[in-house]
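Design request, C-alpha cells follow.
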C-alpha cells in the first residue's frame, strides 16, 4: 500500500470527521434556536395579552410593552435568518460528503490502467464524472445563495 494512498485515505477520514463535527455543532445550534423560538413565543403571548387586557394602563407602560414586543419580533427574525443559514450549511455539508464519495469512486476508476478498463468501467467513470459536476454546480448555487443573502442583509 503506497504512502500516497495512505495519505489520501487519512486526509479523507480527517475531512469526514471535520464534516461530522460541523454537522453536530449545526444540529446543536438548531436545537438551541428551536428552544429559543418557543421561549420568545411564550414571552410574546404574555406581552400581547398585557397589551390587549390592560387598556387602562399608563401610556408609558403600554409603550414599554410595545417596545418589548417589537424587540422580541426582531430577535425572532434574527434567529430565523440564522436558522436559514444553518440549513444552507447542512445542505452544503451533504453535498461536500457526496462530492468526497464521488471523488473516491472516480479516483479508483482513474487509477486503473486504461488497457484493463472495460467499456462498463469507462461508462461508469463518465457517469461518476457527470454526477461530480452536478454536485459541484449545486454547491456553487448554495454559495451564490449565501452571497446574495449576505449582500441583501447589508
Amino acid at each position: 500500500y503506497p504512502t500516497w494512498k495512505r495519505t489520501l485515505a487519512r486526509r479523507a477520514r480527517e475531512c469526514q470527521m471535520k464534516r461530522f463535527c460541523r454537522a453536530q455543532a449545526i444540529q446543536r445550534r438548531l436545537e438551541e434556536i428551536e428552544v429559543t423560538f418557543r421561549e420568545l413565543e411564550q414571552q410574546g403571548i404574555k406581552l400581547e395579552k398585557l397589551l390587549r387586557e390592560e387598556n387602562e394602563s399608563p401610556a408609558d407602560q403600554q409603550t414599554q410593552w410595545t417596545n418589548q414586543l417589537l424587540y422580541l419580533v426582531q430577535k425572532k427574525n434574527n434567529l430565523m435568518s440564522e436558522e436559514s443559514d444553518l440549513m444552507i450549511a447542512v445542505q452544503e455539508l451533504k453535498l461536500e460528503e457526496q462530492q468526497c464519495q464521488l471523488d473516491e469512486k472516480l479516483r479508483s476508476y482513474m487509477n486503473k490502467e486504461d488497457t484493463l478498463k472495460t467499456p462498463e468501467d469507462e461508462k461508469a467513470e463518465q457517469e461518476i464524472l457527470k454526477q461530480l459536476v452536478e454536485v459541484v454546480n449545486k454547491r456553487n448555487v448554495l454559495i451564490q445563495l449565501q452571497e446574495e443573502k449576505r449582500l441583501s442583509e447589508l
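Comment from the thread starter after seeing the answer: thanks! The mean pLDDT is 91.
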